[in-house]
Structure formats: C-alpha cells, structure tokens
C-alpha cells in the first residue's frame, strides 16, 4: 500500500544570509487507502530573521536571485531506527530531469523515505539547463553550492550523503556538485557514499537534446514558437558543442567529459535502457567503462524496453528494490571502512 507524503516547499537562501529555526517533528495527515491517519513525517523550517548582507537589507531582486526551491523530508525516529539500527540515516539528494515536476520526483523520494532516509528534492530551472549551460555560463555551479549548504542549514552534514540523478538535466548539476566536493574546503568533510544515475549521461547527442527539449516544452507552446526555439537551440548546441567543441572545451567542458575525466571515488549505479531515444545507451556504457578503468566502482542495469526516465514507471518494484539494495550496500561499505579506521587507530 502506498502512502502519500505531506511535504512543504522551502525557498532556500544562502546560509550566511539568514538564520533558521527547526521545529521537530509535527503530525501530518497521511492518506492510507480509504482512511486518513496521523503520522510523524516531516520537519518544518521557519526563518527567524530577514536576510542581511554586511548590515544591509537585501532588495527583493537580490533575495529572489539567492533563492532555490526545494523539498526536504525527514523520517520519524522509529522508521530510521528500524532500518539503520542507531546509525545516522542517509541523506538522499534527488536531482530531477529538465522540466521535472516535483509531484513526479516525490514518487522517487518515497523509495528512500520509506527506508528511513532524509530526502532533498531539487530540479534546476529549464533556462539554466538548456540556455545557460549551452552557452557555457556556469549558473548551475552556484545552485550546486546552495544545495550543499542546505546540509549545513539542517545540521545533517555529518550524515552519509547519497545522490539520485536523473537525465542530463540532473547530471549537469551533479557535475558541479562533484567539482565542489573535489575542490571546495567547506564541503571536503561531506561523506558521500554513492550515487544512482537514471537515464544519463549522454554526450554530443543533438537529436536526443532536441527530443528532451520538445518533451519539456509540451503542447502548451505554439507550433511556431516551438519550431523557432528548437531551431535556435539546435544551431547553438551544434556549433558550440560539436563543431567548435575542440576549442570551447578548454573554456567550458561539457558535463560528460568533466565527470569522466575527473570522476568521484564513490560507487555509482547506472540505470538505463537500450530503448531510450534521448540518451544513447552506448554513451552510458562507455562512460561506465571509463569509470571502471580508473578504479571507480560502477554498475549497470539495462531495463531493455523502457523509455527515457520511465524505468520506474514501467518496472516499479524492480527499480525500487535495486535502488534500496544499492544504498544498503553503500552503507555497509561505509561501516566496513569506519571499522578498518578504528582498528588502525587502536593498533597504533
């Protein structure tokens, strides 16, 4: 039986600009079949101050520019204890595909909520994914920093961190998160244990990018405007990311090359399908092989017949079981590593 989870969208502002007060836990109604019960589920956040920078109140525009919309859900203590036996529950950060609605992303986060995990859901704006990134503007980098700062805002920075990334839209943001974890001292202590990657990454696939943009625009956009947008996007991507890429890559590498050339050390699980018409299966397979050659643990699962970011829809039980099993494996690897460290310290 599926439970609907009550969540609340929180507009995040940079941690240095605001103070927060966390209220623990409240009762939220959860529908269970034909009846509604009360269940402790989410922690709410309330801002206690108006944001300031160097003693000056921010303007509305500055406040809007510094905000990102995300959802965070905390499990009740009983669920966490049952699954993680007193250890810190994992924090799962889900990065949605371009145009993803939160009601769809929440179905994936429920996989982990029911396993006693904290979840953070975020999807980057369309203009950032399709325009800023195509022209080499690193707008996603500042978003990546704000997402990681959320961990400190909620005081879960010492918990195991796990990512679930969707399509190139999510992977573009994941690329900058990986770079920050490699280079930024503030985030060097974060303990990332693994990542699931769904329907990504793809490289230099203009046709696939056009299919993704077409699906994202939807029927509400007029045919003429859709044609103009697709034509402009196709020309831009083709010139900057294919024809001129041997030169432009020295200024701004694409997400595929950036992560492949400097991969993170934690394990990855790639969920893909040979039936995907947006991301070429060979791109995913080649990417995983490059990880393995560099000693990064990476697994593949081909769902065979499901379309782009539809593996969970077509194979819900298999998908959820594989994600949960991989997370448990990553947690066991973490426990083994910590035990080895303790033994090493004791033997000195």
List the main descriptive attributes of the protein structure presented here.
348 residues; alpha/beta; Rossmann fold; eight-stranded mixed beta sheet; 14 strands; disordered N terminus; disordered C terminus; transmembrane helix; transmembrane; DUF829_TMEM53
Any overview of this molecule?
By secondary structure, the protein is of the alpha/beta class. It contains 13 helices and 14 strands. It has a domain at 67-203 and 254-347: Alpha/Beta hydrolase fold, catalytic domain (Rossmann fold, 3-Layer(aba) Sandwich). Helices cover 45% and strands 20% of the residues. A hairpin with a 2-residue loop joins strand 6 (52-53) and strand 7 (56-57). The radius of gyration is 21 Å and the shape is globular. The model is unreliable at 1-65 and 339-348 (pLDDT under 50).
Write the SSE topology.
Elements: E1 9-12, E2 20-23, E3 27-32, E4 35-40, E5 44-47, E6 52-53, E7 56-57, H1 60-65, E8 68-73, H2 77-84, E9 91-95, H3 102-113, E10 118-122, H4 126-132, H5 139-153, E11 160-166, H6 167-183, E12 191-198, H7 206-217, H8 223-243, H9 245-248, H10 255-261, E13 268-272, H11 281-293, E14 298-302, H12 311-314, H13 316-347
Helix pairs in contact: 5-6, 6-10, 7-8
Shape: globular
Order of the strands making up the biggest sheet:
1-8-10-9-11-12-13-14
Structural Rg: 21 Å
Please write the CATH class name of the domain at 67-203 and 254-347: Alpha Beta
Task: Describe the largest sheet.
Answer: 8 strands, mixed
**Low-confidence spans:** 1-65, 339-348
Instruction: Work out the helix count.
Output: 13
Membrane topology: Single-pass membrane protein
Protein name: Target of EGR1, exonuclease
Transmembrane segments: 224-244
GO cellular component, one term: nuclear outer membrane
């Amino acid at each position: 039986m599926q439970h609907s989870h009550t969540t609340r969208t929180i507009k995040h502002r940079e941690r240095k600009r605001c103070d927060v007060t966390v209220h623990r836990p409240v009762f939220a109604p959860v529908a269970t079949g034909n009846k509604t019960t009360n269940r402790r589920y989410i922690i709410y956040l309330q801002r206690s101050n108006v944001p300031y920078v160097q003693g000056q109140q921010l303007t509305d525009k500055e406040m809007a520019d510094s905000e990102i919309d995300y959802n965070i859900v905390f499990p009740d203590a009983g669920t966490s204890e049952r699954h993680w036996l007193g250890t810190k529950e994992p924090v799962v950060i889900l990065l949605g595909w371009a145009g993803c609605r939160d009601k769809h992303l929440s179905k994936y986060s429920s996989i982990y909520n029911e396993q006693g995990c904290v979840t953070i859901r975020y999807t980057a704006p369309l203009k950032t994914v399709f325009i800023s990134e195509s022209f080499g503007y690193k707008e996603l980098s500042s978003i990546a920093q704000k997402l990681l700062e959320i961990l400190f805002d909620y005081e879960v920075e010492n918990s195991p961190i796990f990512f679930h990334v969707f399509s190139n839209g999510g992977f573009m943001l994941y690329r900058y998160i990986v770079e920050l974890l490699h280079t930024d001292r503030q985030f060097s202590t974060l303990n990332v244990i693994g990542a699931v990657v769904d329907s990504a990454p793809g490289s230099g696939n203009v046709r696939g990018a056009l299919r993704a943009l077409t699906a994202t625009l939807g029927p509400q956009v007029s045919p003429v405007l859709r044609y103009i947008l697709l034509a402009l996007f196709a020309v831009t991507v083709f010139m900057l990311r294919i024809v001129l890429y041997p030169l432009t890559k020295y200024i701004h590498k694409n997400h595929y090359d950036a992560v492949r050339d400097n991969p993170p050390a934690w394990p990855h699980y790639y969920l893909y399908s040979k039936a995907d018409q947006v991301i070429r299966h060979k791109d995913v397979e080649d990417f995983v092989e490059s990880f393995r050659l560099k000693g990064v643990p990476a697994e593949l699962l081909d769902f065979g017949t499901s379309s782009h970011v539809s593996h969970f829809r077509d194979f819900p039980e298999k998908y959820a079981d594989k994600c949960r099993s991989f997370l448990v494996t990553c947690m066991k690897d973490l426990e083994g590593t910590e035990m080895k460290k303790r033994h090493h310290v004791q033997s000195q």
